[in-house]
Write a structure and sequence with these properties.
Elements: H1 8-14, E1 20-33, E2 37-43, E3 51-56, E4 74-83, E5 91-102, H2 118-122, H3 132-153, E6 158-159, E7 165-166, E8 178-179, E9 206-208, H4 213-223, E10 226-233, E11 246-255, H5 259-280, H6 282-292, H7 296-305, E12 309-312, H8 313-322, H9 339-349, E13 354-360, E14 376-384, E15 388-395, H10 400-409, H11 418-425, E16 431-437, H12 438-446
Helix pairs in contact: 3-5, 3-6, 3-12, 5-7
The structure holds adenosine-5'-triphosphate (ATP) and manganese (II) ion (MN).
Adenosine-5'-triphosphate binds at residues 234, 236, 243-244, 247, 249, 389-392, 435-437, 439-440.
Length: 466
């Protein structure tokens, strides 16, 4: 069955008065008037707005069914589009046939027509898409994914699917989820009673990927400009409003490109997708601006129009040291910038996105290109107000000797990365790329404070219910 139905978005926007349409949706509110009418607001997810359906008692199933309807019930309504006497809507629907498809027990249905807290709605993640906020988040998320693909596809970037299961740890540090089919209750042991991974599914330890970058680099060093857009996993035990254990990342990688080119792409890309979302989802963005954060539209417009600030890490440290601030994490050259520092720079100092470049090599992974000063790498982070880091990127180390030296210095097993090193053995080229957290992008675009509310089913420490 695929019922030939109109979308409420289309009916509200431009179906002519007098037309007959069929729609399907879920009741948001229902009110029976004394005169024998029911006013039903119906939503089908095609837009923020509900359509008002007027059902009168002449309908055959009025007494038995329609008069008992409650929030959450699903209906198929066939009716005539009539001018709406009420404010705010062009048209409403005069029901000729109101078919009740699924009832919803009013005593138990969790999504009542009132304001629920986001905390509560997280416990109802399977139903929260039926609320205004989560419907809008879902539409913006989908539109944003489309904009991102469009951005790269229209510029000749190749979409590469990198593996989800990997044997390499891109960051050279923990935070990995293991993938294994070994029986945890009876682990095979070798002679020295270490776990014998030869017995495991892949005959080696494997993990969920933290980034598709290393594999994307291999395709970039053959095909030019590429990008990935896929799920990534980090077992970081950080319960913050900006970290998930499972999140989506966009990672472009460009051959014959240096750090400046990388920063240029990051800036152009962010401007493009933020301008794009204002364009593509005006009603949802209005909603976020009105109900969630009354600065989002202004901020996105501002970002799309003004150049980002670019400073070096060294300069950033100077600014932070000179700032009249009591830092929770003290500032000195060599520290990793914390969110409080990042937010200060982008919110207080510059009041716009800031690209910080040339970080100390000691706080950055092995694959970032070592600069001539010997102590910084060609790294860049893009910081935006309220979120802090939204993009992390770098020019990659293309010199085999420098690369292996850095891997050894970080006690990595160079042999494990033989294929990554091969890129530097055979036709090495300067190349650069970055990673953008998709959920942080949605957070920034919508003003949603908690990252758990911009992905359908958030995975965080001690939470994977749905
Ligand atoms: P942070 O310091 O905020 O934890 P990171 O330095 O670990 O970020 P990268 O490893 O550079 O981040 O990852 C690239 C991008 O992925 C980040 O800029 C951010 O947008 C996003 N990101 C990183 N970790 C997470 C996470 N746990 N949940 C959601 N997004 C994340
Ligand atoms: Mn992190």
């Amino acid at each position: 069955m695929n019922i030939d139905r109109a979308l409420i978005a289309d009916v509200l926007a431009d179906v002519e008065v007098g037309s007959e349409v069929t729609i399907g949706g879920w009741i948001r509110t229902v009110r029976a008037s004394k005169g024998g009418f029911s006013f039903i607001t119906l939503n089908d997810g095609s837009c923020m707005d509900c359509i008002q359906v007027v059902a009168d008692k002449e309908l055959g199933n009025y007494d038995d069914e329609i008069s008992h309807l409650t929030a959450g019930c699903s209906l198929i309504v066939c009716g005539e589009v009539v001018e709406s006497p009420g404010k705010g809507q062009r048209v409403e629907l005069h029901g000729r046939e109101v078919r009740v498809i699924g009832l919803a027990d009013a005593e138990k249905y969790p999504i009542q027509p009132k304001r629920h807290t986001f905390e509560f709605l997280r416990t109802q993640a399977h139903l929260r898409a039926r609320t205004n906020t989560f419907g809008a988040v879902a539409r913006v998320r989908s539109a944003m994914a489309g904009l991102i693909h469009e951005y790269f596809q229209s510029r000749g970037f190749l979409y590469v699917h990198t593996p989800v299961i990997t044997a390499s740890d891109c960051e050279g540090a923990g935070e990995l989820f293991r993938v294994s089919t070994l029986d945890l209750d009876a682990l095979p042991r070798d002679d020295e009673s270490n776990i014998d991974y030869a017995e495991d599914f892949f005959s080696r330890p494997t993990y969920l990927t933290v980034s598709g970058q290393l594999e994307a680099e291999t395709y970039s060093c053959a095909l030019g400009n590429v990008y990935t857009f896929g799920p990534t996993f980090r077992a970081e035990n950080s319960n913050t409003p900006r970290h998930l254990a499972e999140f989506w990342m966009i990672e472009p990688e460009m051959a014959f490109c240096d750090l400046q080119g990388d920063a240029d792409l990051a800036e152009d890309f962010l401007k493009n997708i933020f301008a794009g979302i204002l364009n593509k989802c005006p009603a949802d963005m209005e909603f976020f601006n009105k109900r969630i954060d009354n600065t989002v539209i202004e901020t996105l417009t501002h970002i799309a129009e003004s150049p980002f600030e670019r400073i070096t890490y060294t300069k950033a440290i100077e600014l932070l040291e000179a700032a009249d601030c009591k830092w929770q994490f003290p500032v000195s050259w060599g520290i990793d910038l914390q969110t409080e520092h990042e937010r200060y720079l982008t919110e207080e100092t510059f009041k716009k996105p800031v690209i910080i470049t040339d970080y100390p090599s000691s706080i950055k992974p092995f694959y970032m290109r070592l600069s001539d000063d010997g102590k910084t790498v060609a790294a860049m982070d893009v910081l935006v107000p309220k979120i802090g880091e939204i993009i992390g990127g770098a020019q990659r180390e293309e010199r085999l000797d420098v690369l292996t030296e850095r891997m050894e210095a970080q006690s990595m097993n160079v042999d494990d990365y033989w294929w990554y090193c091969d890129l530097r053995r055979y036709g090495t080229v300067p190349h650069a790329g970055f990673g953008l957290g998709f959920e942080r992008t949605i957070q920034f675009a919508t003003g949603m404070a908690n990252i758990r509310d911009v992905i359908p089913y958030p995975r965080t420490p001690r939470s994977a219910e749905f």
